[in-house]
Each structure stands twice: as structure tokens, then as C-alpha cells.
Amino acid sequence: MTEPAIFHYTEPFVLENGSILPEIELAYCTYGKLNAEKSNVIWVIHALTANADVADWWAGLFGTGKMLDPEKYFIICANNLGSCYGSTGALSLNPKTGEPYFHSFPLLTTRDMAKALDLLRKHLDLPRVYYLIGGSLGGQIALEWAIEQNEIFENLLILATNAFHSPWGIAFNEAQRMAIQADASWQYAHPQAGMMGLKAARAIALLSYRNIEIYNQRQQETDIEKTDNYKASSYQQYQGEKLIRRFNAFSYWTLSKAMDSHHVGRGRGSAEKALQEIRARVKVVGVTSDLLFPLQEQKFLAEHIPNATLYELNSLYGHDGFLLEFEQIQRVFEI
């Protein structure tokens, strides 16, 4: 991997809703070497709380002979706009005020996030992308990008994602934001505002990422006399603590709102019409046990994208299967 780099776009960045960021930065990582024809680019878009180091969070798919092979491909992953791993977000300084944006950071959409990635692509002088890959929120952004710039991408691998966010998904996100709002510290303009709320939000989110089968398998009690301090309780606490050590409530708020905003049909007539604009060869991957992005949403994508094939991952891990089922994903990539 090269050292993480920062792309600094110094022009005003106009958002879909008309708001303007005076400038933006995107942190990104690259791996491998670009060939002379610039034909070996794989671009990965991360999900909600990940970062630009795809070799870290998708390590099972990274390395020689694997999907993300730096000896064969030039691999790029950028931290999404609004996140907290080096890209412009709510804790960034507003150049107009010299102070962090905090609660004044504007609403982002998945279309805005795709637009920012395309600025980085142009900056890197990459006329084509051999493979665009994204899961969950990353898949939503990938779809927007593949519609807006449909001559750029040769292949598209999207996992556990959808054409528009469902009322079910929006409700889960709103419940998480309600947890953040319930934290009295959220009202303050401070980097640590809302962190206990974020801990609770992550615990709520985990219920949508997994399912009853995996909890029964991994968190079942063996002591039938126990009346408190259950494994499942400790697990929820642990997952919340783990996130607040590396993330912040402001970015979580921004990115969950962006996910809610996702609808490829907005301004394009319908989702069906928008998906027809994709020119890439597309592999749509769904997880059979996914509660948050159920398989019917990937079936919809495969039905309406012209050159798409649906693949099903059998997994006990629910939505998180797209991050964990390395062997199955590798086989899909190789087909």
C-alpha cells in the first residue's frame, strides 16, 4: 500500500440539495501498480463505518491470488465524503468560519458521495475502471456512480445493497439517531458529543446486521440458573464500546442520513428507468439471511439492470455476510 493520500478539491462543491461545501478533501489508499493501458483499476467503495484501507477491513479478499490482488490490479479505496477517516465531515474545519461544522454540516446524499469520488477519479487521470465494487452503503454509492458515469465502468460487483432504501432500513437508522439524540451531550458542539448515544445506536444497528440464528448460536447461555449478566448483553455493550473508540456520532448521523436518501430514481423518472442506464457487466450479490437489505432488493436490481446476474450468498451472518463470506465472494468474482 502507498501511504494514505489526501485529495484536496479547492472549488465549491455543490450538493444535490443546493447546499455548498466551500472545499472538500477525500482520503484514499492505493495498492499495486497502474499498468500502461490504465486498464487494471479496481475501485472499492466502503460501507458505513469503514475506512480507505480495504486491505484491513476486507483482508480475507486481499492478497496474491485473491479478488483484490495488488500484483495484478491497481486498487483504490477512498474514505467516503462525510466520514471521519480523513475526508471532509462534520468535524472538519469550515474554511469560512475556521471552526468545525458540527451540527451545521449539510445533508449529503449517495449521489453527492459518488460525485466526490468521480472528482478523485479525474484527479488521478483514470479514464476507465475495470471493476467497481461496493457493499451496503458502498453499493448504493456504486450504483449512483455507475448510472451517472455509465461509460466509465466495465464491471460492477455490488453486494447486499439496493436501488432505494426501504422504510424498514430508514426506520432502523432513525431509531439509531434517536439514541444519539437522547444523549444529552448531543446538543453541544464538541467532538465527543453524542458518544454514549452512538454506543446505543451501534447496538441497535447490530440487530439489523445479524439475525436470531447467529445470536442463538454464539450468545446462548449454558447456565440455566443465570438471571443477569447475559452473554448477549455483554456482546451488545462490547460492540458499542468498540465503535465509539474509532468513530464519532456526527459522521454516523451524516452517513446514516445519506443512506436514507438513497433512491436511484430521484429525478430520473423511476428506479427501473435509472437502472436501465447502467452499461457495465454487473454481478449482484445478496445474502440469504440479510434482514436489513433482504434478497428481494437484490432481485429487483438484477431484474432491471440490463446486463446483470444475481448470486446468493448462504450465510448465518445476515447483512454482515458480505464482509465475512470471503470464499463465496471470491468465487462470484472469478465467474
From TrEMBL:
<dbReference type="GO" id="GO:0009092">
    <property type="term" value="P:homoserine metabolic process"/>
</dbReference>
<comment type="subunit">
    <text>Homodimer.</text>
</comment>
<feature type="binding site">
    <location>
        <position position="320"/>
    </location>
    <ligand>
        <name>substrate</name>
    </ligand>
</feature>
<feature type="active site">
    <location>
        <position position="319"/>
    </location>
</feature>
<dbReference type="InterPro" id="IPR000073">
    <property type="entry name" value="AB_hydrolase_1"/>
</dbReference>
<comment type="function">
    <text>Transfers an acetyl group from acetyl-CoA to L-homoserine, forming acetyl-L-homoserine.</text>
</comment>
<comment type="similarity">
    <text>Belongs to the AB hydrolase superfamily. MetX family.</text>
</comment>
<feature type="active site" description="Nucleophile">
    <location>
        <position position="136"/>
    </location>
</feature>
<dbReference type="GO" id="GO:0009086">
    <property type="term" value="P:methionine biosynthetic process"/>
</dbReference>
<comment type="pathway">
    <text>Amino-acid biosynthesis; L-methionine biosynthesis via de novo pathway; O-acetyl-L-homoserine from L-homoserine: step 1/1.</text>
</comment>
<dbReference type="InterPro" id="IPR029058">
    <property type="entry name" value="AB_hydrolase_fold"/>
</dbReference>
<keyword id="KW-0028">Amino-acid biosynthesis</keyword>
<keyword id="KW-0012">Acyltransferase</keyword>
<keyword id="KW-0963">Cytoplasm</keyword>
<dbReference type="GO" id="GO:0005737">
    <property type="term" value="C:cytoplasm"/>
</dbReference>
<keyword id="KW-0486">Methionine biosynthesis</keyword>
<feature type="binding site">
    <location>
        <position position="202"/>
    </location>
    <ligand>
        <name>substrate</name>
    </ligand>
</feature>
<dbReference type="InterPro" id="IPR008220">
    <property type="entry name" value="HAT_MetX-like"/>
</dbReference>
<dbReference type="GO" id="GO:0004414">
    <property type="term" value="F:homoserine O-acetyltransferase activity"/>
</dbReference>
<keyword id="KW-0808">Transferase</keyword>
<protein>
    <recommendedName>
        <fullName>Homoserine O-acetyltransferase</fullName>
        <ecNumber>2.3.1.31</ecNumber>
    </recommendedName>
</protein>
<dbReference type="Pfam" id="PF00561">
    <property type="entry name" value="Abhydrolase_1"/>
</dbReference>
<feature type="active site">
    <location>
        <position position="290"/>
    </location>
</feature>
<feature type="domain" description="AB hydrolase-1">
    <location>
        <begin position="41"/>
        <end position="324"/>
    </location>
</feature>
